[in-house]
Amino acid sequence: MTISIHDGVLVGYSVSFLENELLLDIKTVADEIVTVRFENYLAHYFDYVMAGSILFDIEEVDLNRFFVENREELESRKSFDWPIRYNDTNDLVKYLQKNNYKCYVIFASLGLNGYAFAKTLKIKRK
Fold first, then answer.
1. Residue 113 lies in a domain
2. What is the spatial distance between Cα 97 and Cα 106, in angstroms, rounded to a whole number?
3. Exposed, middle or buried, 93 (CB in 10 Å: 0-12/13-18/19+)?
């Protein structure tokens, strides 16, 4: 049976730089706790982090499309070497593609939204 996070409430998240993973714990509408695990994680950016965030969906998006839509934002983070050191966003896209990273966009009905760069995403019941 497929696990749905639609309308699930974020109960917490954590990052392990040693394990290279980002974890989101979500209480689903079926009243179970599931963990969204971004494996081989590189970096994430979240806005509107708050208790009670209601997730709409997490979608893998095409890196090229993401960079076209977010070029200005990513250029502004270049001077902070985020998420890695790069000269321009084209270099960053090439690095992500060469190393098989994907971009996962997190959409919310309320609260937390953003994106993560990771190689895989898995959802499991706790």
1. yes
2. 20
3. buried
Q: pLDDT by residue for the chain (126 residues), tens digit each?
A: 688 999 999 999 999 999 999 999 999 999 999 999 999 999 999 999 999 999 999 999 999 999 999 999 999 999 999 999 999 899 999 999 999 999 999 999 999 999 999 999 999 998
Give domain status of residue 98, yes or no. yes
Quote the tokens at residue 126.
């706790």
Q: Is residue 3 part of a domain?
A: no
Radius of gyration of the chain measured on its C-alpha atoms: 15
Which of 49, 37, 56, 61 has its CA nearest to residue 111? Answer: 49
What's the number of domains the chain is made of?
Answer: 1
Residue 2 lies in a domain: no
